[in-house]
Amino acid sequence: xxxxxxxxxxxxxxxxxxxxxxxxxxxxxxxxxxxxxxxxxxxxxxxxxxxxxxxxxxxxxxxxxxxxxxxxxxxxxxxxxxxxxxx
Length: 87
What we know:
Elements lengths: L20 E5 L10 E6 L2 E4 L40
Antiparallel strand pairs: 1-2, 2-3
């Protein structure tokens, strides 16, 4: 799917100068004990759960899920706003 002109230089990978929203956890993504530590939004860092201890990989009672691979996401913008619903 072609991107609008100029977006390829700012989107698509993690590298300096590109826009990104990143979430960093203190443990594996699939471990319910893991907590959000940082969120990066367009270069700004937001810190959460400062006292959270690291959760070691492989210590979960749940089997690890593999999230390795290539991922793609598509989103569609609405073409028109829906009228408000009346009850």
